[in-house]
Amino acid sequence: MGKKMNFRIMKLIICFFMLPVLSGCLGARQINDLEIVIGMGVDKEEESGNVLLTAQVVKVDMSGGGAANARGGGGEDSEGYWNVSSKGKSIFEAVRQITHKTGNRLFISHNQAVIFGNDVATEGLQAYIDFFLRAHEMRPTALILVSEKKASEVLDAKPETEKYPAMNIAKLVKTYGFTSHFYEVNMEDFASCMMSDTMAPLAPLVSIVQENDCKEIYISGMAAFKNGKMVGTLNHDEARGVLWVLGKVKSGVIIVPSPNKQGEAILEIIKAKSKVKPGIKDGKIVMHIEIKNEVSLSEQTTTEKLATIEALEKIQEATSEVIRQEVMAAFEKSKDLKADIFGFGEMLHKKYSKEWKSIKDNWDEIYPTIELNIDIESKIIKTDLLKKPVSQNKEEK
Amino acid sequence: MSIEKGKISSQQLLFLIAGFVHGSVLLIDFTVGITEHQTWMVILAGLVITVPVIVSYVALAKRFPGMNLVQINDMVYGRFLGKIISIYYIFFFMMTLSFNIRDVGELYITFLMQDTPFIFLLIVFTATCAFAVAKGVEVLARTSHLFVVTGLFAIISTFILLIDQMDFSNFLPLFELPFIKIFQGIHIVSVIPFGETVVFLMIMGCLNKTEHAVKNTLSGLLVGAVSLFIVAIRNTAVLGRTQTIWTSASFQSIRLINIGTVLTRMDFLIGIAQTILMFLKCSIFLYVTVVAISQLFGLKSYLPLVLPLAGIEVILAATVFQSPVDHATITQNAGIIYSVPLIFVFPPLSLLIAKIRGLPKPERGKGT
Predict the structure, then answer these.
(1) CB A141 to CB B256 under 8 A?
(2) pTM for the full predicted model
(3) What per-residue confidence (pLDDT) applies to A316?
């Protein structure tokens, strides 16, 4: 009995000794030791060819609300972030070089967006994207963007309503649904496109405009890549042309001339769906694209009453024509760039895996000869609050 | 007689097998690198191939009730040859166990606990397994229900959370890869998750009733196979062609979960489920190894061997490979070759020899 009790006490003592050892605090880092990165920019230094990395770090005590504001007093140092940059032969070296300035290792789990400068993008992202996919702290859902100029300038442009430029950029990209003029591309999507034999990845393109003394940034379209190198850009309409085909259009504005040509009808896209069926006919590749969309009449600039069956039918036709033009514009652009931004190659690969082997090798020559057979069905499903425009409409019934 | 006194029901066997097969879920990455988007059919083919072999295991266990593999080998092949074959089996158990312990360590060091010393993770994990083994097979069998349910929960919930990111055209074109790759894939799948169930020949002797053993074993195998299948489908549908580049395709697809920017970073789910199921798998392996060795040397109890063997396994696991690269190469190429005779040849052969020689005579005489 006594022996058993002793054994129990021994066990208890051992448990207590194990507590400090097994508390699992190895490698713990407190929040004030972290340099929380919310955005990263990758540029190239012109003379040396080194990587110039800019990391946007949150100032932990500045973003703390009331107390911080009282202390900062709205002085020149009132920004809640710090753009710290460093150079290195590779991204990882640059990331570690930053510790010479910050004293702490960067914590990139909360990284929202990675912005590649124009020079890096045209040189090819192959060499730069690896770190962002391999690093365990990095999330594959981080957005990828291309800057029209230097990436560091984009991170410098201070937004008005948001506190942090990187957060602002991420927000701009994520809300693409309002216009569908570009779409969000994350690391995983981009890597997936880069691994494809033919598909050309796209990434949103950020531009900067100088307004008086403050810079404003906006997304001006999409950058198209081929073999990892940026080969050109798509403007808003061309980018939406791609999205129509891929079925990624969420919402947006379509402007069509009104039936009597005296004004315009402005439509909002409610819903869009697409189906692409590749076909090979007599050795010629035809892509059958079927786009179905539902729109609503959101605005009109003409005095004509548009809420009649005849007028709506005409507007529907005009809408389909606008969409067709957007798709064709995107296709023409992709022919110019020789980049398969629609992923037609992959679609063919999936359906015609036997023929694909011969097509694959001279895809660049075959791609411009592809015929598009576009079938668009537009429906106006509502006219919102008005049945008739505000006008004296004497001649109307 | 056998040195294990515990008894398990055949329903518990079902869950043990299901958890055991399910524990290899992350190991399908060995196959994914080879068979890419056709992994799902490789899993189905592997299952179909292994079913008859596993039926032969159960038939063998039924023929020699209350006996484990080492005793069966002694009886069928004679004392000398039987011992050699048993040593071969023990070698296989020990190596596979060390690979599996290493898998857990690599899982933690790569994804969950970067800075923790590797050997520390191995020691903690193996010590837990050793504790479970010391409690006996009955305890393991009773807890396996819970483990299997946890694992299934993790798999099904992640599948549902990822449904909106799935693109089922990733499975096309259906037949693209050369046959030799598919063959290698089938080989790996039929050995690593399914064929390893040969360890249950050491446990089936503890069954209290052998009536429904075939049905329950196959159901267990099916549950395990379905979870592998769901994972393969999920990874291919979510990741598409990038699934071959990641160290762990499963982890990568879980990392993509993003529901309303709130429900993100669900890695822990798979971390928990995988740790639990690997624990079950490694415990079964450790138990089997310990029992086989003590049976081979005719010990009265296997308990004195548990801790020393666990220590040996930790050292083996820490030193056997230099890196995951080594690990994958050896498993994909050598590991599946040396285990083929143990999984596909000896058990059916034993059954055949036993039939021809009319074994086991003395046991049947005593029993009835």
Answers:
(1) yes
(2) 0.88
(3) 92
